[in-house]
Amino acid sequence: MGRQLPGAAMLSAGVAAAAAPADELGAISHLKHVPRRYWGRYVATALIVIALLFIANAFAHGKIEWSYVARFLTAQSILSGLVNTIVMSVLAMALGIVLGVVTAVMRLSTNPVLSWVARGYTWLFRGTPVILQLLLWFNLALVFPTIGIPGLVEMRTVDLMTPFLATLLGLGINQGAYTSEVVRAGLLSVDVGQYEAAKSIGMPRLLALRRVILPQAMRVIIPPIGNEFVGMIKLTSLASVIQFAEMLHSAQNIYYANARVIELLIVAGIWYVVVVTVLSLAQARVEAFYARGAGRLAARQ
Amino acid sequence: MSGINGMNGGAQPAQPIVRAVDLRKSFGEFHALQGITLDVAAGEVLCVIGPSGSGKSTLLRCINQLETVSDGALWVGGELVGFRRVGDELHALSETEIARQRLKTGMVFQRFNLFPHMTALENVVEGPLHVQKRPRADVSAEARALLDRVGLLHKCDAFPIELSGGQQQRVAIARALAMRPQLMLFDEPTSALDPELVGEVLAVMRDLATSGMTMIVVTHELGFARDVASRVLFMDQGRIVETGTPEQVLSAPQQARTREFISAVRG
C-alpha cells in the first residue's frame, strides 16, 4: 500500500502541473531530491547487534578459560598443525584442479575411450565417502603389499604410504572428481562460436582450449572452485583419522592431555576462519583478473 | 599489404582455389547440400545469395571444415579437403592435418566471435603468434598495419565489449587476414549489425576485394553483390539454382525462383 502512495501523489501533482502557471512548474523543478530511506535496515542492524552482544556475553561468562585460548593460539604444535593444514589444502587442491581439468577435457572429447574413462573416474570417486577413501589409501598395503616395477624398483607399501601421502591422494583424487564437473560446466558455458573462431584460425583442440576456451570458462569456474577450496581447508581435518598431523589433530592431542576441549576447539576455529578469510580475499583478486573483457559487472549486482 | 595477397599470385592460373564436385551434406534427415558442383578461381569475389536454410552457410562451413562433408569431394588450394586418397577410399585426416588445412581459409562470422578476453590487437596476433609461431615483432607490426587498414588502429587496446558491432566485425576481418589466407569466407558478415554500421564493414570488404583477395561472401546485401561480386550464385534447398555475373543473376534472372527471391529481398 505504502508503495503506491508516492506514485499516486506524483500523478496528482502531474495533473496539477498541467494546469499550474509556468513559474510554479519552475519552482517544483528546483525542489530538493531526497533519497529513499531504508528504515528496515536500521532496525535489522540493531537486532543483529543485540543478538551478537548476547552471544558474546554467553561465551565470555561460560566455562571457557580465555587465557588458555590466548596461550595455545600460538603454541608450537598448533602452528605446525596450521602449516600442515595449509600445505595439504594447497597440494590436494592443486592435484584436484589438475585432475579436474584433465578429466573435464577428456569427458568432452570426441574420443569415446577418453570420455568413458573420465565418466568412470568421476562416478567412482564421487560415489564413495572421502573418509572411506582416506582409510583405503592408508591401508593400501593390504591390497598391494609392494609397489613399483617388479625387478627394478620395489618398495613396501607400508613405508611409502605415509599419512601425508595417503591424505594427499585421498583428498586430491576425490577433489578431482568434483572439480571436473565444475570445469565441465565452465567449458560448456563458453559460446560455441568461440570454439569455431579458434578453429577458423587453425587452432587444434588443445590449443583452443588453453588459449581461448579455458580463460573464458575461468570466470564461471573460479567461484565454485573457491568454494571447494574453502571446503578443502576444512576437509583436511578428516585426515586426523589416519594420523596426519593437521591442525585439528594437534588440537585434539592437546586437549586429550589437558582436557581444555572448548578452548582448543576455539583456537582451531579461529585459525580456520583466518585462513578462509585470506583465501576469500585472494579469490576476489583472481575473479577480477578473469573478469577482463567481460564488462558490465555493475549490471550483475 | 602485398604479403596478404602474395600467395594468390604464384599459383597456376588454371587451378581453382575452391573446387567442389557433387558436394553433399546431411544433418540426419535434413539434406543441407544436395550436390554442389562449383569452381572458384583465384581473385574471384563470389557472392552467395538465397533464402535462409538454402545451404549457403553450410557450404562455407564445409569449405573450412567446421562441418565434415557427407559425400562428394572438395578441394581448397589444390588439396583435397578433410581426406587423403588411399586407393579407392578416402581416409579422414587427423585433427592436426585438418587444422593445417584450415590455415588456407580465413573465416568471418555473422556474430563476429571475437575472443572477449583479449584486446583487439591480441585478437589479431593470436593466430600468427600461437598457431603459426611467427616472431612477435613481425606479427605485432603486421597486426597494427591490419588494424590500420580496417580503420581501427586507435582501438587496438580496446576489448571487444568496448567496440560497436561494426568495429568488432572489422577487427574480426583483421584477425582472419592476419593468418595470410588464400581465401576469405564471409558468413553473413553484416546481418547482426545495426543498419548504420553495415556500410563501414562493407567498405572494408570492398577494399579487400579490390586488392585481389579471393572471397566467398554469403550475404543479403544485394547492392554489395552488384557492385563488388565478380560472380553471384543463387542457392535454394541445398542446390545451386543459378549463377552468373551480378547483372545476369540480379537484374535478369533466368529462373522463376531467383526472380521471386530477389523481388522479396528488395521488398
Give an account of the 3D structure.
The complex is a heterodimer of chains A (301) and B (267). Chain A has 301 residues and is mainly alpha-helical. Chain A is 74% helix and 3% strand. Chain A contains 13 helices and two strands. The longest helix of chain A has 32 residues, at 76-107. Chain A is flat and about 105 Å long. Chain B has 267 residues and is of the alpha/beta class. Chain B has helices at 2-10, 56-63, 95-102, 120-130, 136-149, 165-177, 195-210, 222-228, 246-251, 256-266; strands spanning 18-27, 30-40, 45-49, 71-76, 79-80, 83-86, 89-92, 105-108, 183-187, 214-218, 231-236, 239-244. Chain B has a six-stranded mixed β-sheet, with helices on both faces. In chain B, strand 4 and strand 5 form a beta hairpin. The longest helix of chain B is centred in the last third of the chain and has 16 residues, at 195-210. Chain A binds chain B through residues 191, 193-194, 196-205, 207, 211-212, 215-216, 290, 292-296, and chain B through 64-66, 95-96, 99-100, 102-103, 105-107, 109, 111, 113-119, 126-127, 130-132, 159-162, 172, 175-176, 179.
